Amino acid sequence: MKVGIVMGSKSDYGTVEKAEKILKDFGVEYETRIISAHRTPRAAERFASGAEENGIEVIIAAAGKAAHLGGVLAAFTPVPVIGLPVKSSTMDGLDSLLSIVQMPKGIPVATVAIDGAENAGLLAVQMLSIKYPELRNKMKAYKAKMEEDIMALDAEFNGGKQ
Length: 162
Description:
5-stranded parallel sheet, globular, 6 helices
């Protein structure tokens, strides 16, 4: 199981590394690349066109501003693409979000929140868990632990009252 993480520029790495951590915690192999939809379109086409043959089963595409990367990659591959809008100085990332989420019919890109790298990683794990039962079990354990942690905080906050 392998996830391809693609970012439009090196400045997106501060966001992307949070997705890498999630994937690492779940034991999912990944590769991270810098490929621009606008400055290196042929490289984007080559990466996306070869993703399946290279063992990539899900792609996370992180981009800011015009944020066309996810859509460009999705146009060239049958592999699911998760768009990760990166907050930029322009419109606090709203421009990125809208660029990713407003895809034309036939080229879907799943989209997470602005700077929602953790959710991009988790969504990739959930997609992979359809095929890999061990990931499904890890995801169930992750969600149970999250619930347990919140319940403990609630008990602490409320002095143990139900």
